[in-house]
Amino acid sequence: MAKKEKSEYIIQAVSHALDLLEQFHDEVDELGVTELSKRLKLHKNNVFRLLATLESRGYIEQNRATENYRLGLKSLELGQTFIKQMGLLRQAKPILDGIVGECNETAYVAILKEGYVVYLDVVETNLTVRVVSRVGSRLQSYCTAAGKAHLAYLSDEELEATLPAEFKAYTPQTLTSLDALKKELRKIQEQGYAIDDEELDPGVRCVAAPIRDYTRRIVGAISISGPSMRLGDERITQEIVPLALGAAEDLSTRLGYNK
After folding, report:
1. Nearest-angstrom CA–CA distance, 226 and 157
2. Distance CA 107, CA 197 (A)
3. CB-side exposure of 111: number of CA atoms within 13 Å?
4. What is the CA radius of gyration of the chain?
5. For the chain, which residues make up each domain, given as ranges?
6. Would you call 102 exposed, middle or buried from its count of C-beta atoms within 10 A (0-12, 13-18, 19+)?
7. For 142-167, what is each residue's pLDDT tens digit?
8. Stated pTM of the model
9. Which fold does the domain 75-254 belong to in CATH?
10. Which distant-in-sequence residues (6+ apart) come within 8 Å of 161 by Cβ?
């Protein structure tokens, strides 16, 4: 018996669902049923049923304000899983080692997941006084350098959907208003890096720079943390910021990012 080609096993409905998901790319954030129907050459009823199925599983969500559809958190989770397993962590490890070799402070790679910063990997300093490892922890994004390095590049709508309704003051330095945070994020976007100035933990300062992949999207952040007694303003400006920026650029290039 002749062996069947894999194409003979394709399920048309699944293929259509994947075609629909692939319409959201580059600058296409949202699409309506009519536009999707035209692009996919499918009847609106079929498109609506595909959307309803994908929405029920979290891969698509509807913007209630515009009634258009966009990718849901489940799509993000799949992408982040791929990055974690296939690219980001593997490529980040030698870069984190290099950072610690140069400045002997703790270096992290982190991602933004469901509004929280998640630290995926760390290389620690060998100094006795150090920042406690946060690998695997979910921390609020608005009071961490890695979190703000992500938030700075979100739209106002995305930002407000990502942030909590109320900001908890972890220290006297924590930004506790949306206006103050937005002002800080504009500054971060201009300079290309973020600083946590004892905003989460007293006595701890941190610098982070965003990591981009081949699609130019921000997929993570490189973060350098240390006690404030060692990370003074001058050292941050002259040593830590250039190191974080250079490391983030190196890792972005390894992930296919091209300026």
Report:
1. 33
2. 16
3. 21
4. 21
5. 6-71, 75-254
6. middle
7. 999 999 999 999 998 899 888 988 89
8. 0.66
9. Beta-Lactamase (3.30.450)
10. none
